[in-house]
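Reagents: none. Just compute today. phenylalanine--tRNA ligase.
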Amino acid sequence: AAVRRVLLLGEGNFSFAASLCGAAGIHVVATCYESEEEPYFSFTFEGAEVGFSVDCTKLKAYFLPEHREFDCIYFNFPHCGKKAGVVKNRELLARFFHSSAEVLTEEGEVHVALCNGQGGTPADQPRREWHNSWQIVAVAAEARFILSNVHPFKAETIHGYKCTGYRSQDKSFCVEGALNHVFTRSMPLPYFKPMICKIELESQKVSFQVPRVLVDKINRGFLELNSNHPVRTVKEKLTAELSQAFPLQNTDYCLSLLHQGHLNGVCHSNIFWIALSPEEETPSTEEMSNGLRNAVLFSHVDFCRDADKNGWVNVQEGCRISDQYYLRPSLLPYAQAMVQKGAVLPGTLHVLSGPVFRKCLITPYSMPVFHEMVFVCAVNRGIENSCIEMLMNNIKTSIHSLHQTVSGFKPNINLKEARSFETTELNDFAAFESQLGKIQYFICMETDTSGSCEKSSCVGIIRTAHYELVSSELVVVFASLNLDLLAMLICGISDWRILWTSDTRFFRQFPRGELRLFKSFSLYPPSYVHDVSFWVPHGEPFDEVAFHTIARQVSSEMVVSIQLIDSFQQSETGRKSLCYRLTFQSCDKALSRTEVAEMQLLFRKEINQRLCVTLR
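Predicted 3D structure written out:
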């Protein structure tokens, strides 16, 4: 096994270094800030290099290029010395993290031990007020580090360790309740170039610009055979269970990414409208597949060119054209079309699955894209309730099995009559489904013991419809499940965005075919609050969904909350002013104050241009 190189900074009496020396598989480089007659690295003891006069904010200067990569850096109880306050110590940490980034391996760790309360995270007990702490997660984020673990620093378990250095003196200090903070490198914030999708639609080769908010989500292949994503695991488990009770047929392969026509009852502001362009180049047959999985995606910087010069239609994202194409918001229309074409075999359970796209407000459980699974079964009139019961029993069995394996207990899964729900009680998934037509039942999953069906727990719906098919009247049962929400509830994931991360630390937690409780690799991420106020155009309704969608786009989904905090209308002119509070926070990446300030400026510019509001 390779030897791990460990760098120790700010060693006072080298007792921590001595405790590590001789450990198998590590090479220790121990340093302190204080000087000796010979600066830098002056001697070696028990296999460890020792250096003096080493400034933790300029580490790159002390090591030759071939010796700059450390697997682990320890900085125990950093302090500027004497009576330095929290601001100076924050500055020290900031410069230290930037310096560490230059000498740390890609998979390396930075360990920072702080006295109780200094870090400013919820792990501190008691927790200091944020402004009176060292704000370690926010400071580390500026250097692209995330807090991946935090645990007690138990000095008594470290052989021979003595805490000295109180106010730069040879005095001990209290380390009761001290915490060791473990930081790792963050993936960079995403930068998405405009993207064009080429497909074949009704025998015509076309292309369209992918809405910016979906560029990193439209072709991820979570349901593919080689995927180990928990969403696919949930789908496979459901399919396997239901195939024991019904003859089962999958029909995913023929589903088009785009839909055309009018969806009765659906609010247009919830739809991702698409403007098509005629495609001049002729891709291969594989590239021209009609399905989402085989759509060809490529970056296209100059995506809005003049049609006369280059053959592209001059349209912007969101423009509505006469054909009225839009990204599919539901698989239900495809299921209904199968029934009307007579492609549904009575007694057979037909299964459709794939991602669907819906504009929605920003909440932890509101997803602009998720994987839907639709079941279709045609039965003779009078036995539809038996079909629903059998379908629900098998769904319950598979979810119970999954959840019990992961959490050790069975959640409550119930059918609740739609008429017993108020609109305000529905989560975005259920509320949108209600726009598509009458619903008989909501499928609710309760993962706590309170018995309440909270907004986050409505994971599916069931509706029925009567059809005259082949001279007989059949009742068709349609059931729809939100696979992403199911995966979240089963695996204890509190933020939908983590399902779409590209970080391998997420995927390593879910070996193929296995679900586990998710353990966050970015703890206590810093949040930043910005307000924006503006006048809305007189006499025009304000499109709040569009407002939220712009926030998603400019922040790359870093806005976690938008709250209306003030509304005012001038009596003289009738003009209306709104003030919103935006909270920025990442669930998997380092997000700095500087980056958020840039996002906020861009957001102000975009709402001014696209929503025609007047900023205040």
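The chain is about 20% helix and 30% strand.
Action item: order primers for follow-up constructs.
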